[in-house]
Fold this sequence. Notes:
By secondary structure, the protein is of the alpha+beta class. Helices cover 43% and strands 13% of the residues. The protein has four domains: 24-136 and 469-504, no CATH class; 157-241; 259-336 and 424-454, no CATH class; 342-423, no CATH class. The chain is built from 17 helices and 13 strands. A hairpin with a 2-residue loop joins strand 4 (248-252) and strand 5 (255-267).
Amino acid sequence: MSPPPKFKDSPVEFDQHLLFPTNIFDLLPKDHDCFVYEAIFQNIDTSEVEKQYHHLGQHAYPPKLIMAILIYAYSHGVFSSREIERRCRQDLAFMYISQMNCPNFRVLGDFRKDNLSFFHDCFKQSVKLAIDLEMASLGHISLDGSKFKANSSKHKAMSYGRLKTKEAELSAEVDELIKKASQYDQEEDDAYKETNGYSISEDLQFKEERLKKIKAAKKALEEREKSLNPGEPIDDKKQISFADHDARMMSKKGYCEYSYNAQINVDSDYQIIVGQHISQHANDVQELEPALQALSEATDGAAVDKWSMDNGYFSGPNLHVVEQHDIDAYIATDKQEKPANSDLVNSDRKFVKADFAYVSEADVFTCPAGERLITNPASKAKRKSYRASKVVCRECLYRSKCSGSKKEAGRVIRTDSFEKTRQSMNKKMETAGAKAIYERRKVIAEPPFGQIKESGFRGFSLRGKEKVAAEFSLVCTAHNVKKFVNAASTGSVRLEYLKGVKKAA
């Protein structure tokens, strides 16, 4: 007698053909997110891309279909063209989004590279849809930045100084090889009445190709630095990648690699990204102008009530942008700008810049001991220096807390022409109302970057700033669409008026 069974039997007919075919997508749960994604994708306007196609020749895949596949893939952490194609052939949800009509991985990859402007337009469409769904009110916008790895290796790069040296060396070697080739050809022509120069042609060709790459990289570095730092000499230590000339070496958590600085403006209601751009600067001290421009373009110039950002944006140029556009901004001051809550005289802490009172009318700083720090009005330096008297500082009772060693000169405070605006922001951020508004920043701007990276996106697949910017627009669009789907799934918003929404019922 056989023992009683422990496990379920497989259906006998599971691998048999059915007499009457069924819809395989009925196997998906009725509340699967792919149905909501499809309803949203039907509202993407691809008319501008469709104008590029012609009715003659082989019929192309509909741009709306390819865009839907890419957004769905990026929303689910799939970024490789080959992996997207594989999922469209094996994953039932991907098969539904692709309508059982999956393009080849080359088609997907070429579409990403050949339709850069449309990805920006698609992002703007997602922002407009968020506003229509009342998921973005633009009442409180928060700006943040994060570095993403470029599609390049730091081992395939060269410094400016090395590029100049290598260019000179290769130029000399190429000239010497050409001279030898001409000499050998003449000798063979005299001896055999024919010419070839085969003995050194391969070496010459290799060095000429190498020299061409060196010159191209050197020129690209010079143009990049001229754009980023106009009027300044190029440091020989500046590096450039041979794979991606636009990427820059950036430090993150003590580790340096070629990266791009991605900037996002996030609405406080549902963490919808309402503005984004790509920067080649390693820090954020001059990102407010491009961030404001990107925000204006995505929202058709809509007004922003409140704008918050961390102390990485606390700089003179950024504060000037805020003042110029009359924006109610909340920018965290750095440690040198904020006095500690302690007794200056009796505590052991060192004096910081905020302990020195600035008098805008006289354009001077006053130290805790009452001594005036004055500037040289004839100085042409970009940053203004305010100095105290050496004699007075050496005899000051607070010397150990202020200037340090007696061998040093008097205390120096360095600032720029935006000091008045900086002081105004300092006072504003000390108020209880400003602190309460700024406190919300960390739950507005920071989570989207965490969600994007948690999905698996840590670096770009494309190369060059223009292509990278387009890919980041796709990433942000996928983030926004994912927010729409989550809100619809929880009942926070209703999508009944969208095309095809009945499929999600």
